[in-house]
């Protein structure tokens, strides 16, 4: 399934070589081509949750600027059509970047012309504020979409938090992810405005057993015991909203929690290897639990320090599991001579009140790692189920 | 030449799979593997200038915080050793992330463990302010390293401009580029502090005839007529500093100009296709000059509109050519509902007084595209020649 934009729009000429820009047509040693890959848009669940985590992310939160419910519905319809097209490697709208009238603005901004689908997924979510009454949705708000509580040591910046809507774009080529977000923002001009956005340059989680565990900016493997897309029973138990969990429109959906976690990497880098490993609860080289040698060795949390991250975050401690899908970020510097870098934590869970919230409460209170972290952005979104052909994102909510 | 960090440090275990994180071991359709590729560090010129432009960039400008010349020299020596190692896919120092003492801070921050060299290049430059007298270098300042003049419509942010030193890290994996900058910053703790840094997610220039021309965030192919690494006569004429051009220590070096150019993409996206093409001077689909059909057709600048970008930037207009090596960026949003996105323009030239400055003057004054641009960061650096084994970056300046 490698429909490229250039094939669809008949571009020719020496400049349209197979390489596109950059890693566009890279082929993994396994023969798997991460650029050409196309992830189906339609299905019972939205893509971008259990999809094997792509390499790059562009995440955006929007404020809705209209109070007209019909306009909001039209936006979701238009976005769905554009998402169907862009995830298939096509331009955002028909008559895309160059095919429309010369005297019209192009219907697509063009920077992804010639690039393959790159496993692009687009995942939409609805924030608690969307249910505040402006759109007649107050009585459809799921109880699980309760505002997150204040956590100990939170230092949240409102300009990096909240939002009425979100779109998570993940792809193996960042140009494809940025293009998708930009074109959705453009389609939404006059209806939504960008509240905040975050670029993630490298995935920090595996969501498939076929993926190697990547490293976060503390230099440690992250997400070894993540729920994987192959663990369908665990997904049903911990990720997907089930019938009876709340309003029917969320069945097959999931709750997304995003946290912008600045890492004080300069301080971390001055702590000893043994201290780092004690804080994490794993060895730095192999990623094995302390005392073991294999990354995937079973974790005996009772053998780990009480305040170690892995112990506190474990299902044994909180009874909760999450599907983590975060990304490393670097956003320039902070004016104090340090890089502004860290983890853009994203997780999906069936009910944050029983999963993310107790886990984060335990971490915020006791995790030795907190000394090196600053949570400065936070948001929660209800991601509706997937759409069938002809439907639109959130149709069950507005129907 | 694919020496990976994990091989050198004997990491084992199931988690150290061949894939590393993300596009680590991607192989181009041509059989070329952009992750495994290793660019030689040593040579008559620094790497990262004519090296075929890698996909991603992390650029950092430092202020020197010591006034001790010997400390500065020691830093450049330490940086050179670390750069030799990291560009070879090794950790920043011996006894890297996990091989030192348990009670010592690791010598490498670890997030690139297991990742191949990814064509990493590190290129150092010296800003005009380094020659202000603190280090006894005032009489060694090249006349060509004159502060850039104010250009019409400049709106420069001092926090995104200038710097005593710069390091440009380019790689096909952003995690590798970020790791390199972070470890150099760490090595420099107490001697330098980060003044500003910029992540570029996608290259906007080709610097080799083997590369397809990428697109900028206006959706146009950028850099079709760039100087290519194969054009050795043009490189000698326009890029490399020659004997007699100025102080001998810069022979074989080049001057780097960086400009952070915010693009008003929302406004651009509302202009018609014909207006966009008229402003650029090329067609959007193929990238061909207006009136032609092939991207690489000769450009007859007299046939283009007087205020078109390609005409004004042409060698016919200004007599100047540059080696461009810029990157697309997206840095969140601007608080006004718009993405903060654009082009991090980087060019290399033999004498900016005769090349970049007249070209930018012409563009700033007359280019129709300026309505959609805001230059908000600017810096100039003298990049010394390459180093031989045992030498250090800038040895000729300090020797």
TrEMBL record, chains A, B:
> What GO annotations for molecular function exist for this entry?
heme binding; metal ion binding; peroxidase activity
- Where do the Dyp-type peroxidase N-terminal domain residues begin and end? 46-201
What cellular component terms from Gene Ontology apply here? cell envelope; cytosol
Q: Which InterPro entries match?
A: Dimeric_a/b-barrel, Dyp_perox_C, Dyp_perox_N, Dyp_peroxidase, EfeB/EfeN
What does the UniProt function comment say about this protein?
Involved in the recovery of exogenous heme iron. Extracts iron from heme while preserving the protoporphyrin ring intact.
Query: Which Pfam family name is an example for this entry?
Result: Dyp_perox_N
| Protein's name in the database | Deferrochelatase
Enzyme Commission number(s): 1.11.1.-
